[in-house]
């Protein structure tokens, strides 16, 4: 039984048909669908919301908008008596200490808690369709996709955890739910295949691979990546090392090889160490080997993240069982890193908090925790939090003497400044990152700061220098085989061609950019999203017939992942295409994003008579 089962007295259920419970019994809900809509809006808001914004979004079509809001609030307060308070200007929803909100559990709770929710997997406000106008309709559809994405993330985590616990049957059931909810999500198919193999049902696993291949060919015109079929054939483990000393040597050699990027050498050593530790029944060495193996798979072997996540979940379980906090912290860090790449930022936050709690003040580990947490905050457009966490990461990296962490932090800060249009600060940070990465020979990472620096040069109007930097970034990304940095460099070359008026070349490059990310299932989703957005910008500006479809794809991609600035930009593209309510939605989203570049775009898109 989890703590919240004991302490919870009341529940606000927004998944599936909404309801309010007190003392285990349903209470009469508020009158009117707008009251439920307002409750969901306040529950999902990042903080108190000005009443004027709610009036504009939900009640602007009423004869007396302010009176309509007051009546709706009165209905909501009556239904929430003893459960939560609603009031103030700005308006805020304040749950009682013993009240649980299901969407909050899905976003930030433990997976075990989420699985106990009675309507997990239900749509947000299922069956509620308030007549509020096009802007709120767009907001609600956006939030439904975001909550669906969070639900999928927590189910994915739960399936891996159950697999690590040896409960393959339950893992297969959870993975099957994922496949049913989003049949074109390749990772879900791969996870289901792994769970079926672990359950001993190879025939069902082979059938799943065939069904996935047929579905992808029919719907997408392409095969899934080799990772799905590879899940049928787990990587054969080398013969386990014969002694504990040999295991330690393999762990040390494998970790060292991975550190310098020699993954072909690292993986056999780490697999041998893991196999040897299993044979010896040594949970400590096994946990450490699984962490190093998982990290190497994430960092160096494209298309292997599901295998890596399985190893890391097992490592967490083992390390917790023997109170090895350091190993558990490293495993939690790596799991948070994977979730950040997948834009499962709420799940990543859970892992980062666990890593911090177990790190025992280790500046080297905490630097990487804050680095990835800051990257995630940037991804979702929370720039003030991102700056704070990344600056703390920089100090921790210096204290630990970790040049790689420091270089990555400088790149992350450069990206943050670039997104906010602060090109001088971005250039300084990115030039430093490029110099250090080149100096320490971190060639697998170097294309990222180079591509970002090239974009700064492009924004500053130095097209010749930008071209040279983009070409170097792209060439190195291809050499090291990293589709993320290849994709981002293609995007930059497309933007450069557009700036020069070379429209045909620009279109070819911008179409190719997101496609490069999709070659394998474990790319950084933020990169793919920004490549999609650049294509939408070009398509809308040039009136291409394919632009509306691209914008729909961007909106769906970004909203499922909670990439709020990209959702706002998609809304601006919708507005340019003439969709009612889209510019109002963009303004609502941008109001909570501290980015002068985005604010400028919204300001230029909004009619001058609209209030700020």
Descriptive report:
- The protein has 30 helices and 6 strands.
- The protein has 612 residues and is mostly helical.
- The strands form 2 sheets. The protein has a 4-stranded mixed sheet with strand order 3-2-1-6.
- The radius of gyration is 25 Å and the shape is globular.
- Mean pLDDT is 92; it is low at 1-6 and 608-612.
List the helices and strands and how they pair.
Layout: H1 3-7, E1 10-13, E2 19-22, E3 25-27, H2 33-44, H3 51-58, H4 65-79, E4 84-87, E5 92-95, E6 99-101, H5 102-108, H6 111-115, H7 134-164, H8 168-181, H9 186-199, H10 202-220, H11 226-230, H12 244-259, H13 263-280, H14 283-300, H15 305-321, H16 325-341, H17 345-358, H18 363-379, H19 383-400, H20 403-419, H21 423-439, H22 447-459, H23 463-480, H24 483-499, H25 503-517, H26 525-541, H27 547-561, H28 564-576, H29 582-590, H30 596-605
Parallel strand pairs: 1-6
Antiparallel strand pairs: 1-2, 2-3, 4-5
Helix pairs in contact: 2-4, 7-8, 7-9, 7-15, 7-27, 7-29, 8-9, 9-10, 12-13, 12-14, 13-14, 14-15, 14-16, 15-16, 16-17, 16-18, 17-18, 18-19, 18-20, 19-20, 20-21, 20-22, 21-22, 22-23, 22-24, 23-24, 24-25, 24-26, 25-26, 26-27, 26-28, 27-28, 28-29, 28-30, 29-30
Q: What composes the largest sheet?
A: 4 strands, mixed
- Portion of residues in beta strands equals under 5%
Q: Outline, from the CA principal axes?
A: globular
Distance between the termini: 49 Å
